[in-house]
Every structure is written in C-alpha cells, then in structure tokens.
Write a structure and sequence with these properties.
UDP-n-acetylglucosamine1-carboxyvinyl-transferase, Chain; 4-stranded mixed sheet; alpha+beta; globular; about 25% strand; about 425 residues; 2 domains; binds ligand EPZ
Amino acid sequence: MGAYQIIGGRPLEGAVQIHGAKNSVLPILAATLVCGGQYTINNCPEISDVDTALDILRRLGCKVQRSSSQIRVDTVAAEYREIPEELMRKMRAAILFLGALLARFGEARVSAPGGCALGERPIDLHVLGLRLMGAECEYDGETLRCAGKNLHGCTVALPFPSVGATENLILAALACEGEVTLCNAAKEPEIGDLIGFLRACGARIEGTGSSVLHISGKAALHGTDYTVMPDRMEAATYLAAAAATRGRLVLQSAEPAHLQAVLSVLERGGCEIAQRPGEIIVRCDRLQAVSPIVTAPYDGFPTDAQAPLMAAMATAEGVSIFEETVFSDRLRHVPALRAMGANILATGRHAVVTGVKRLNGATVEATDLRGGAAMVIAALSAEGESLVTKTEHMERGYTSFVQTLRSCGAQIARQ
Ligand code: EPZ
C-alpha cells in the first residue's frame, strides 16, 4: 500500500506536460482486438490501468511491446479465452473487452468489472444494446456470458448516455450485418477519439460529437498507427491544484476545447485563464466560491472533475454547492477533506462547501482515483504535513504524479 507524504502551503508554479487520456487509450487498446492486425498507439499514459489492459491482451494471445509512451500491439494471433477475474476486477474499463471479444470471436465471458467504487455501476445498458444486436446474454450478477455469431443491425436508444455502454456497443456493432444506430450515445471526447481510431482502421462511423451514431457493420478493417488525445481529467486535476495553492501553472499539450465547463467554473471563481490549442495557463489568488456546480454528461461539468474542484473550493471565499448527478455515491472523499478542516455538509448527491481560510494537514486514505487526487490537492494547500495512503488509486490514472507535482514546487514524497 503506497503513501504520499506532503507538506502543504506552497503555491504550485511551473509547467506541466499533459499525457495521453486514460479513458481514451483503454477503449482503443480493447478495440485493437476487433480486427487481427498490427497497431502502433502513441502518447499512451504510463499508468497501471494501461498495464492491466496490456496484461489482458497478452492473456488473449496478442503480442505487446511498449517503449515509454508508445505501445505496439499485434492481435493477429489472438485466440478466444476468458479474461481472468483478477484482471477484470482491477478496472472498470475491462468491461470494454466484452464488445471487442464479441465482435472478433462471436462470444465473450467477462466478470463484473471492478474500478472505482462510485456507487452502483451496473452494465444493464451494455446488455440492452447487445441483445438488440442479437447477442444472447446471461448475467448472474457476477459473470456475463454473451454469444452472437450473427449480429445484425438495429437501433439502440440508450436511456442514459453511458460512456462505457456507448464504447462497447460501437465495438460490437462493427461485427453486425447492416447498420447500428445508437441514440442518446455519450458525446465525451474520448468517444470521438475511439471513433477516430476505428475510422483510421477502416470503420464506417458517422455522427462523431453528436448523440446519434451510425455504425456500418462488416467493414473491412486493418491495423493502423494512432495518437491518443490529451487527458482532460489530468488537466482538470492540475488546474484545480493551481487554484487551490494560489499558484500559476502552464499546462502543455492540453486541449482547452475539452475543458470549457471546468475553465468556466475556474474563471467565475476568479482565476485568470489563458487558453490556446495545446496550452492552458492558469493563475489564481484566493478562489471565490462558485454555485451551483452540477455534474452532467459531456459537455456539462464532468463528474471526474468534481472531487478535485471541491478540494479547491474548500478554501475559497464563500459557499459552493455541488450536485453529483452521474454517480450515486461519488462524495466519498468528503470525510477526508473534513478531516483536514474543510467545512462541508454532504448528503446523498449534494455537498455544501463553506470555504475556510486554511486547511490543516492530516492522515487520510484515498477512496478512489479522483477522490484521492482531491486529497492530494487539499494536502498541498493545507498548513503542515499530510499523509495520503492507498495511493495505488492515483497510480491508476496519473502518470508521474509525484514527480510532476515536485517539479512545480510541491513538497511531496512517495513513502
Ligand atoms: C466512464 O465510466 C469513465 N471511465 C469514468 O471515469 C467516468 O466518470 C464516466 O465514464 C462518466 O463520464 C472510463 O472511461 C474507463 P458510465 P463508465 O457508463 O463508462 C450508469 C475516472 O475517474 N450506468 O457513463 O463506467 C452508471 O451506474 C473514471 O477516470 C448504468 O446504469 O461510466 C453511472 O451512474 C471514473 N448502466 C452512469 O451510468 C450501465 O449499463 C455513468 O456511467 C452503465 C452505466
């Protein structure tokens, strides 16, 4: 179990290199399975979730080579096998191999995916779409078995624009006879990146950026080279850290177009933001409270930025009200922020944050990827020493987190 020792109270100042997006590279790695070929994926983040995805590909008989941010995958020799439960349980994105396995082999058996505990995380929308394509799916709450060697075109109207369900159904649709129309599809930039990758492989997919996608099945696919988009949630985390510590950061290789809802909140909170393609500069004195901050599917305020922004608002001037509408239990970082002196009243999906002048260092335990990042942000802005444990959560999604923060003046060390 890892831990970060942090001495807070210093403004973050300097430049941060934003890496490839975790939530884009994971579905893209799963997608390499759909068609046997050679793939070179550039700008891959060096995080443990990518290690897990590569382990899954190797278990399925693929050849994988990695040199820092470049990954080469050869999926020609892939064979149908069941993904071991211990790998499935490591991350939610493992479920994305379901659609890829079904498209390649006509069958798939995956266990209920793991990943951050954010409340209920069912896969009923994934199953809904697969069944409409003609797959036979049996789910006993632990294991999902799907079979479908003759999938067909259909229209799937998703009750909720689920990111994972949209990604899985795009992959499965590639094997359908005819066209699959996804209505109320997720519009997150990571979906656009997956579609960009698949079109580079020869797929015929229309509607990128909209909530209606048209996927033509049975297109001739082939290997390709592709560069992953920048990680907007890594960028949001460092923006929140700059605001919380009243510092100034230059985010390089960031894509401001993907972060308008977050940038708007920070500007309304008094931050000076300069943005151009590939770069975001943020400078902040004491934040002013912003209310309400309501999470929503893209291009609303992203749920993954909720915890980091709450950590920053904990020392803002005034009262911020947060509402988490995407996940049922995504306020699990609040007790740790309160342990540092934050004045937060949380119930159900709402949190009322009354800014205090200063937080105080404390020993806290990371609850999940973004909640743990929020605790680090709070510790960086706090007076005194903090210890944040269970840092394996943060290692899942932030490349060189400690080194990057140290390079901007943070007093942080891995224990
Ligand atoms: C993806 O998770 C991301 N993970 C999450 O990022 C992100 O928070 C989430 O999308 C929302 O943007 C990856 O891309 C690997 P959903 P996913 O399906 O696909 C409900 C991070 O920190 N739902 O859009 O699991 C679900 O319970 C992670 O990087 C169903 O009810 O998100 C939730 O309440 C955390 N039935 C809501 O939809 C389903 O079949 C959103 O889930 C599927 C989802």
